[in-house]
Amino acid sequence: MRRIYSETAIVVLAIVMMTSGAAGVSEETGIPLAEQIDGLPAQARIAYLRHLISNGRDDAEVFFQLAISFHGQGEADSAVAWYEATIARDPRHYKSYVNLGVLYDEQQRARLAENCFRKAVDLKPDDLLANSHLAFMLLQRKEYEIAWEHLARALEIDPDHPQPRYYLAIFFWENRMYREALLEWENVATLDPEGHLGKKAGENIIMLQKALNNPAQAEGEAGWDR
To answer: How many CB atoms lie within 10 A of CB 109?
Structure first.
């Protein structure tokens, strides 16, 4: 599963808001919007964000949080609409481009996904997720030189982040470098023991161990989430 920017992982942008003071921070509570809605059930979060919009909030931050909420609910069309609204308010909102890219990739719209990841990297060259996801898109097309530049950048930003290491393991698997893939998936399982990537890595480790015992069984593509 590709990681996205979510309500609990956002770095609030410096934007001017109608009903807030500092970027994304409520004048009444002094708490960032992402923290205000963290932990709310999805429908309650959506209702609260719509309430803010109906009362004059029309800034990128509230639109982004609404997009994330629909994204998490699997309502792709609504999520796309609100990510696009976010970008219309703030064309430099790179996290919206990252999340849009993930949505498009899930819909098998590879070119649109790649364009979003490229835009995110242009806006934020040191963003880990943008570089990771773009690297994997390029690896799939066997554009290895530029793909490795982005993957290496992601690993330099955070060597212990499971997403780029998960992609690195997939690359090794697809090129039948099974022992290298096994090592990377073991790293992912250690770095993200309770997360989706860590659990998928654990499943792939079992598959890989079988492949090492009988390489003929390893033909084809493994059943991982990207």
So the answer is: 14
